[in-house]
Amino acid sequence: MTIEFPSNFKVLLDAWNMKTNVWLRECVYKRVTPKGKKPGFRSSMITFFTSAFWVRLSFILVFMLY
Hints:
Elements lengths: L8 H7 L2 H12 L11 H25 L1
Helix pairs in contact: 2-3
């Protein structure tokens, strides 16, 4: 048995649950950025906290269902 490791941290983040990454980018990151402005710290932090909430919620639901 072999374990495959990513070549760098960016590859790891890009591969982590690709569908969730796309959802967070399209539905949160881009939507909280004001039109005509570049995404910045605010957009990143809102996306980060949404991701943290989503992970926590899914963790709680798994234990409630089992």
